[in-house]
Amino acid sequence: MSAETIQSRREWLLSDRPASRLQARLGRAYVAWRRFSANRLALVGMLIIIALVLVAALADVLAPYSATVGDLKNARLLPPSAAHWFGTDDLGRDIYSRIVYGARWTLYVVILVAIIAAPIGLLVGTVAGYAGGWTDTILMRITDIFLAFPKLVLALAFVAALGPGIENAVLAIAITSWPPYARIARAETLTVRNSDYIKAVQLMGASPFRIVLRHIMPLCISSLIIRVTLDMAGIILTAAGLGFLGLGAQPPLPEWGAMIASGRRFILDQWWVAAAPGAAILIVSLGFNLLGDGLRDALDPRSGDQ
Amino acid sequence: MSVAENQVAAGRGSARAVAILSSLGRFLVVAVTTYLGLLAVTFFIGRVIPIDPVLAVLGDRAPTAVVERTRREMGLDLPWIEQFYLYVKAALRGDFGTSVLTTNPVMADIRRVFPATIELATLGTIIGAVIGVPLGVLAAVKRGSLIDQIARVVGLIGYSVPIFWLGLLGLVLFYAKLQWIAFPARLDVVYEYTFTPITGFYLLDAAIQGQWDVFHDAWRHIVLPAALLGYLSLAYISRMTRSFMLNELAQEYIVAARAKGLSETRIIWGHALRNAAVPMVTVIALSYANLLEGSVLTETVFSWPGIGLYITNSLQNADMNAVLGGTIAIGSVFIAINLLSDLLYRLLDPRTKTG
After folding, report:
1. Residue A224 located in a structural domain
2. ipTM score
3. A278: contact with B, CB 8 A cutoff
4. Which of A66, A271, B65, B272 makes the best surface tag, with the fewest CB within 10 Å?
5. A15 in a structural domain
């Protein structure tokens, strides 16, 4: 591609008078991408998350050993070496392989929490904002009440009642993490509720259900995505904490928090058993934090650099 | 002062009084509903989620007569709304039932273990504020400089690191390798019998009684967990301080102060920081509340006999009364700090005086 075609494409993208909806959208995305990619830390964050997804997808190729079956006879608690990059655990399992498979469980948790909690928050927030009056007051009181709770302790109590397991941990985290999304969705709804285009749709006879679903919810999505990304690190840490306390993923699942818990018994002599999964958690949640900060700065310039 | 001016002043005063009363009233409404909400959630967890709460309390080997009696004692034959009413009444009396594990009333257990958590979280918050505030101020003043970058990285890692993992690594380094700190516990076994706590805050108790060897030992036990919690709160406090300070430094009164020829030191630490003080107090209070919660994982790693360890031990023994009592205890303090700092902010911040 010659310099001129690139130049003309850029002009097309940055045009003040987009000729089509597609051009306008692509142009906006391009501007956001330019702002995002100018932030090197945000790019690092994005690379980490892409790497996480790739590792999870290609775990069968990347992991040289089984994640659940070890060599009890010959390979217990070996230090890191060429054969076992991060050493082996007390059951003779290769820690590197377990971390690679553990990427799947980390993704499983964050994705499930996001697709449970975000829609709940979206629904509560948009309904409260659009309906107003008593509905608004009651829904927002409930939201504020949940917002005032200590999240980890509440998640602990939920898992204690539901029984340990990764699904229940996901449920408990989701139950405690929807309120901020409701707040954001409500704020966005209030800004568009009285706008002309909503009035126009109302005049055309659209039901409140349709207005909220088709005309308000889509506008809340981008700020919601930013907030969810920023929350991912917290979700990972909570899930790992529950796993560490023995309430999240159960053995032999290669979940990183549970791996730290099993390495705890040997921490003073065989520190690598617990060190590697913790480093994995740190890197991934750092990635989500960097990505979330970058997205916020790129898509929402008002709050930039605060 | 003229009569008219007096009237205006009185009018302003009463408007202020009304504003204070209305924010107090709002505070009460919010406090009551939030506590009821907390109790509703723990009620739901304890009574509704288990298929048979009696089974959850007694286990499956209890004789039928005991099961029936417990069912009546727990009021499970009543309608839910009445059960909840009784539940709230009991909770207000501080009656959370008996712990299966320790056989004590849960409230007595909580009274015993809570000071340990408070001591840890307080020391952690002090560390976090003493380092975090100056770091945030410097990062804001020298925006984009090396110290700003360092503060940013330190903060980001603080937001991303699993605290229990950092604690384990700290134990390996400072306890096993360097032997700078003592093993995970609150005191050496030697002192467990010779030392009588008064307030339950061991550092304070040892200092009051002049037992400096105990003080030193207690310090060697608390320093690492407190430093870790301090790091968590430092990450939050420095980030918020930076943001508040950037906000203040962009105000016109700073330009005016510079024009008058005040020294930078006085402008930054005297004027800007003082104006940022009100939101800062809120942030420090919130970070304190977060540390109370964060103590659950830290206490487990350091065998620190506080409420966090109490909850996790009870969890492992399916002692639901204790778990929920502990949850309510942490939740209550957490909510109280949240609401009080909000109230404080409303009362102290001049911009929200009339709002």
Report:
1. yes
2. 0.85
3. yes
4. B65
5. no
